[in-house]
Design brief:
The complex is a heterodimer of chains A (360) and B (122). Chain A has 360 residues and is α/β, with parallel strands linked by helices. Helices cover 47% and strands 16% of the residues of chain A. Chain B contains 4 helices and 4 strands, in the order αβαααβββ. Classes of the chains: A alpha/beta (360), B alpha+beta (122). The interface between A and B is medium-sized, with 25 and 31 residues.
Chain lengths: 360, 122
């Protein structure tokens, strides 16, 4: 082979490999995690994905004006059918934010954030704790392996339960972790059955926070603790400012939220259902590093993923609606970033509560 | 769904006063081996509703659990192995959980119990 041919072959190979690396390896949030070619609409049949997406988008147009609160759970379920695969592929198995930590990877920062939650609950082997709104179980696995406690997760989305159980089994944690498909507003558990409970950025889907807090209160044993990371508007939020309102509505619409609450509402709701509030804190406040930097850094990644998803849909590998969903998430990521930068929104307002001991 | 989970699930349909324990309708049971961990079992034991476990275990085809228990049994490896098998190794893959009061069936598919209520049950 002459030198020119050799040179061309080498360059082509390097470019091909580089492209493969950029698209397929960097595309996935986790090695051996969800691949782009496996993107689906969750439990929604392929042909119906685009329609379901349109229905979802119409319903959440005016979150504060949602009269039919009873329909919200079904739409939250639809939302997670649409986004679960994309989240797993592009973000990872923990569907929540974490303060970024200089020198630590996103995975490590996420894990530390999750372990801190369960550290507050002070539970160990033989204790049984509830994960209200467990997604595909990223936090559950970190928490079970860190503390040795038994974790029972509940999620309204059947597709997520399948994914969670598969991941639990793969991680060898299916003895410590169990997942049930149910609505956290009507939990299929007896009163006083858990030694602790946590919810990470999940209660925001309840139309009324009181309804989910009272259920958690009911199933906790007296004397047990509950920690929640809430999505709320902060002190800096001004409902008179059109910009602020636009950002918050953008976040609500793209995340299946019936209406973001103010940080002021959290403790008062907890007390209303009977909890003692031990502490509350916005974990995003300084000296914590920005949680939204991960979204910002992901801009190139979004464009790459957008191209990948569009090609896969065109080839008929991914269902058609997946492109719309991915775009929605991209737009929403922008609102979330603005919410973080302006300081009007935080996804990690932490509240730690106790169910009082019984007065027998 | 393992019996350790069944032991804590109850029917929360509106108006139902005693939704525990759920009866089991079996279509497919699978046995999956799990590492034996006596400490874990001893810790879990206190939380278990024993009668519900023995009934459920019989329904799934395993009748070796004693009807009554006493604390000394936790020292017996033989007992712990039986407990281990019933609690962690028997899986209801397909079937249903039935509300003891209303008879309403909560389906179990691929091992996942779907406890979502219909609109009129809330």
């Amino acid at each position: 082979m002459d030198l020119l041919t050799l040179f061309c072959t080498a360059t082509a190979s390097i470019l091909a490999f580089g492209l493969y690396w950029f698209v397929c390896i960097l595309g996935s949030a986790e090695q051996k995690g969800k691949a782009a070619t496996q993107l689906s609409g969750g439990s929604i049949a392929r042909e119906k994905v685009q329609d379901k997406f349109k229905q979802y988008w119409t319903f959440f147009r005016r979150p504060k004006e949602i009269e039919t609160a009873e329909k919200v759970p079904a739409f939250v379920d639809t939302f997670y059918n649409l986004v679960t695969d994309i989240y797993e592929w592009g973000w990872g198995q923990s569907f929540h934010f974490s303060p970024s930590i200089p020198g630590k990877s996103h995975r490590d920062a996420t894990r530390l954030h999750e372990e801190m939650a369960v550290g507050l609950l002070n539970v160990g082997p033989g204790k049984r704790i509830l994960d209200a709104g467990c997604g595909v179980g990223g936090p559950m696995r970190a928490i079970a392996s860190h503390s040795g406690a038994n974790v029972v997760g509940i999620t309204i989305n059947e597709y997520q339960v399948k994914r969670a159980r598969m991941h639990n089994k793969k991680a060898g944690l299916d003895k410590l972790c169990e997942v049930v498909c149910g609505n956290f507003l009507q939990m299929p558990f007896e009163d006083d059955s858990f030694d602790g409970a946590y919810s990470i950025e999940a209660t925001c889907h309840a139309p009324k926070l009181e309804d989910v807090y009272s259920e958690i209160y009911r199933v906790l044993k007296p004397g047990s603790l509950y920690v929640s990371y809430e999505w709320v508007t902060t002190e800096a939020y001004n409902p008179e400012s059109p910009d602020h309102v636009e950002i918050i509505q953008g976040i609500e619409r793209g995340d299946a939220l019936p209406g973001l609450r103010s940080f002021k509402n959290i403790a008062e709701t907890a007390k209303k259902v009977g909890f003692e509030v031990i502490s509350e804190k916005d974990l995003a406040s300084p000296p914590a590093q920005p949680w939204w930097s991960r979204l910002k850094m992901g801009r190139i990644a979004y464009w790459r993923n957008h191209i990948v998803v569009t090609c896969l849909a065109w080839l008929g590998i991914a269902p058609k609606g997946v492109v719309d969903v991915h775009e929605m998430l991209f737009v929403t990521a922008d609102y979330l970033t603005r919410g973080g930068e302006t300081g009007i929104f935080t996804p990690m307002y932490m509240i730690l509560c106790r169910k009082p001991e019984s007065k027998l | 769904m393992r019996l350790i989970t069944h032991n804590m699930l109850s029917s929360n349909i509106k108006g139902v006063t005693n939704g525990f324990p759920l009866r089991i309708q079996v279509e497919k049971v699978v046995e999956k081996e799990v590492d034996f961990n006596p400490d874990f079992l001893r810790n879990m034991f206190a939380k278990i509703e024993w009668k519900a476990l023995t009934e459920a275990s019989k329904t799934l085809g395993y009748a070796d659990l004693p009807e009554e228990t006493e604390p000394l049994m936790l020292e017996s490896e033989e007992f712990l192995r039986k407990l281990h098998h019933a609690l962690l190794e028997l899986h209801l893959e397909e079937g249903a959980l039935v509300c003891p009061e209303t008879g309403r069936k909560f389906p179990v598919n691929k091992g996942i119990p779907n406890m979502l209520l219909h609109e009129d049950e809330v």
